[in-house]
Design goal:
Structural class: alpha/beta
Distance between the termini: 18 Å
CATH superfamily of the largest domain: Flavodoxin domain
Order of helices and strands: EHEEHEHEEHEHHEHE
CATH architecture of the largest domain: 3-Layer(aba) Sandwich
Number of helices: 7
Largest sheet: 7 strands, mixed
CATH class of the largest domain: Alpha Beta
Helix content: 25-40%
CATH topology of the largest domain: Rossmann fold
Shape: globular
Number of domains: 2
Number of strands: 9
Radius of gyration: 19 Å
Length: 275
Amino acid sequence: MKKIKTVTALFFSPTYTTKKCVVAIAKGVAEGLAAEYREYNITTPFMRRQTPEYGSDDLVVFGVPVYIGRVPNLFRDYFASIKGNGAIGVPVVVYGNRAYDDALIELRDIMQGSGFQCLAAGAFIGEHSFSYILGGGRPDAADLQKATAFGEEIARRLLAGAELPHQLQVPGNPYPYTYFDARSGKGKSIDLRKVKPETDPEKCTNCGYCAMLCPMGAIDPENCSEIPGKCIRCCACVKLCRPKAKYFADETYLEHKAILEEKFTEPRREPEIFW
């Protein structure tokens, strides 16, 4: 195996929780290997204008959030276009204390299909995009300590000459993957695809920050109360708006959020590592 020269933290992270986990892991690896450390953010359309490509002397920690039990589906083709060319890969998913379902096996398959050799994988917890109490404040110090330790262990194993598994085993259903079946309080399946956030005109300064952050480029930067594009409910505009002008008012969305908070705030989920 070639010596690893560069360790990259590669992430899609609208509310920064995935970024925190991936950066901690990647820095742990880089320090352990005395390798160059880099970050590559692919969250917004501007950042995705180019597609990264790696080689056999690279190690890439690739992290995405879990959306309804899966890899964010509207970006799947872009994720699959990232070329590994024999690089070592570490798929990481971050979920909001409910479950990661098939997201990790899906990301593993995407990376393997793109030429990465997957050595290890992780499922970490971050504050749920819909909520402030589901996984509230996470990843916290304990999570990030585990993330760093995971990265350090990856480095130790590589320095010890660890062999790459033919097929890294992780939980989940193989293709075709399944989505989490979101339901209302009456037990009926719900569809949130057309739901978009509202804007409080008393708070909004039309600064354009939310438009810049939006992974879909859905918000009109000239009139931030207008959302002509498709919304994926990542809640970057809600959670990162400085004057707190963005919010969701849709009754079905709010009911679903309340059900999630009631059922999944406890117990506290812990990170899982797979070799």
